[in-house]
Amino acid sequence: MTRQHREALVDHIVSTQPTLLKFLRNRSEDMLAGSWDLVSYSFQHGFEALWDLARADHSGLLNLPLLSLWRQSVELTIKSAIIALAGRIDGNPGHNLHALFRQLVDLRAAEGCCDDDHLARNVQGMITQVQTFDPSAVRFRYPADRIGKPFDGIAVDLDELFQAYWIITSWCEGAVMEMRGDT
Questions:
Q1: pLDDT number for residue 31
Q2: Residues with Cβ < 8 Å from 107, sequence gap 6 or more?
Q3: Range of the domain at 115
Q4: Which of 28, 100, 162, 178 is the most buried (most CB within 10 A)?
Q5: Rounded mean pLDDT of 43-61?
Q6: Is 150 in a helix, a strand, or coil?
Q7: In angstroms, how far apart are the furthest CA atoms of the chain?
Q8: Backbone phi and psi for residue 70, each to the nearest 5 degrees, phi listed first
């Protein structure tokens, strides 16, 4: 049904050649507006939907969009956790997952939480792996670096990617719940 719908839209475009000037516009009643938590959740939902599609499509064509969405979703989850606990993100960590996670752990440490356990170290290790593999948040989005040097291809185990994703996002969400006393 989705393919038929896309084909019908293309047929409409070809036959009418419309000018689509307002396909994006501000919407004040959007529940996502201003909510780090809901935007983070929406990216999580998007990652899971695309992961389902990538698992069914063995061509590998969805791997880079999936990795890009994975990285953005993890970044938003960490940022959402920091903002939930501190109200703001200090400094300018940008897209540096390692710096963001360090800020989250430091916030928790300042409140007496000890994140020197097996799970926290594993989460840190997964974040470090991705940050090392894609230090400037461009490798999953572009075929070459900023000076034009092509990136090597990427092999991804989709099941392990999903598991790493689930562990990282669950840890971050749990870190907030623990500090708020929601557990």
A1: 62
A2: 82, 85, 86
A3: 33-180
A4: 100
A5: 95
A6: strand
A7: 65
A8: -60, -50
